[in-house]
Specification:
Elements: E1 16-18, E2 24-26, H1 35-47, E3 67-71, E4 77-80, E5 83-89, E6 101-105, E7 108-109, E8 114-118, E9 121-126, E10 133-137
Antiparallel strand pairs: 1-2, 3-10, 4-5, 5-9, 6-7, 6-10, 8-9
Length: about 140
């Protein structure tokens, strides 16, 4: 009389659940036949992730640290009657054409004209040279 070994779920179909983030895990906590295929799938998925937004969720703006600058009242130069502008230089290797620029006064957005001067400099225009403007680059 011989002893024959049979796996716990031999002959059962391999079942996995795909999570909301696209990873696979065994159904009902089953660590049997689907565990290693799921592990291999998840490792390949993480390894191929390129952080370009094509194979992952889009980050919201609060998740991306931004660089900031301030335009102080002394920085505004008179252009014409009632029109002032300030010249800003983007930090590091940021470029005007590829950088999101937000202007704020306190908790309020400032809708203002901007004008590209060079690859990394731009003008901000206003009709009030007494304001301090917070500039956020993302």
């Amino acid at each position: 009389m011989g002893f024959e070994y049979r796996a716990h779920n031999e002959g059962a179909s391999v079942m996995s659940t795909t999570t909301s983030k696209g990873y696979k895990k065994p159904d009902n906590g089953d660590r049997g036949s689907s565990f290693f295929p799921d592990l291999e799938f998840n490792i390949d998925r993480i390894d191929s992730h390129n952080h370009k937004g094509l194979d992952s969720e889009t980050l919201d703006k609060e998740s991306v640290p931004g660089l900031t600058a301030q335009i102080l009242p002394a920085a505004w130069s008179l252009v014409s009657v009632g029109v002032y502008r300030a010249l800003l230089t983007l930090p590091g290797s940021l470029e005007v054409d590829t950088t999101n620029i937000s202007l704020r006064i306190g908790n309020r957005s400032l809708l203002s004209d901007t004008e590209k001067v060079t690859t990394n400099t731009f003008y901000v225009y206003t009709n009030d040279n007494t304001i301090t403007v917070e500039v956020l680059y993302t």
